[in-house]
Amino acid sequence: MMDANKHSIHKLFLFSPIDAKDDIEEKYERCLLFVQNLINGKSEKEGHEELTSTAIKSTTSHEDVCIGLVVTILTDSSSAQRHYRDLTYVTRDGMTYVLNVLNQIACDKYHKLHDSSRNQLIWILKEMIKTSVTGTDGLVMNLLRQIIGGDISPKNVWLIETLLDILVESRQWLEQISFLVASVVYTYLRLIGDHSNSLLVKLKQKEVDFCSSLLRERFADCIPIGRDLVRLLQNVARIPEFEKIWRDLFSNPTVFAPNFGGIHQLMKIRTSRRFFQSRLTPDMERKIVFLTSQVKFGQQKRYQDWFQRQYLSTPESQTL
C-alpha cells in the first residue's frame, strides 16, 4: 500500500517559509494526489489497470495521470521503474505531453528542485534516450541551458559532468540530431575555459576528448555554428587536441569535410542567436529581457549591479 504522506510536492520543490505554491505547483500537487488515490491499496497489476482505464476517459484525465506519474517518479526513486513503465503504457501521444511537463520543470522550476528530484529528472532523461523517445533532444537542450557559465560550484559541476557522461554514453543517439551535436560542442567548448582548477582536471580532459572527437568526426554538424566557432576554438587553441584542429582548419580543411573551405567559410556564417541563447539560463534570459524592455534608460544601474553580483562575480565568470 502507498503511504499518502510518502509523496508530497514539498519533496519535489524547495519552498522557503514565505513561499506560496503557484498555479503550476498547485496543479502538480493535485495530480500527484489524484494518482495516489487511484493506486493506493491496489496491487501493481490493479494499479496499472486503474491508471490505464482512467487515462483513456478524456484528455484532461490523460494529462492528470501523466503529471501525477511524472511527479511520483521525481519524488520516489524506489518506485520509479514501475511508474515509468506505467507512464509508457498510459501515454497516448508518444510521450509528447510528458515531455512538455518535463521541459516546463527543466526550464522554469529546475532551480527549485530538490537534489534528489534533479537526480530523478536525469534518470528519466536516460530512460527516454534508451528508447529514443521523439523530442528528448529538447529536454537535453533545456538541461544544458541550466549549466551556468563561469560557475564551478558543486551543483553546477555535477550537472555539467552528469550530462557529459550521458552524451558520451549515448553518442550514437546524439549523432542522429545535428543541431544537438552543434549545441553540445558550442556548450562544452565554452565551458572548458572555466575548468582550469586543479580539482577539475579529469572533467576538463573528458570535455576536451569529447569535443575534439565530435569536431573531428561530425564537423559538418558544427559548421552552422559559424563565426563564433572560430572564437571558441581560438580560446582553446593552446590545448594540444584543439591546436591540431586549429592548424587543420587553416592548412587542411578538407580533412573535416570534402567541400569545406576552412576558416574563411566559417567567418561568412553568422552565428544564430539560438546558440547565444543556449548559454543563458532561462532565469538569466528573463532578467535580461526585463532589464532591456521594462527598465527606463538612466535607471538601469542598480539592476545591472544586481545582475553583476548574481552572475558575474567570480573569477571564472569573467569569461562570460
Automatic annotation (TrEMBL):
GO terms for cellular component: cytoplasm. Residues 61-320 form the Integrator complex subunit 3 N-terminal domain. It holds the Pfam family Ints3_N. InterPro entries: INTS3, INTS3_N. PANTHER family: INTEGRATOR COMPLEX SUBUNIT 3. Component of the integrator complex, a multiprotein complex that terminates RNA polymerase II (Pol II) transcription in the promoter-proximal region of genes. The integrator complex provides a quality checkpoint during transcription elongation by driving premature transcription termination of transcripts that are unfavorably configured for transcriptional elongation: the complex terminates transcription by (1) catalyzing dephosphorylation of the C-terminal domain (CTD) of Pol II subunit Polr2A/Rbp1 and Spt5, and (2) degrading the exiting nascent RNA transcript via endonuclease activity. This is SOSS complex subunit A homolog. It comes from Oppiella nova.
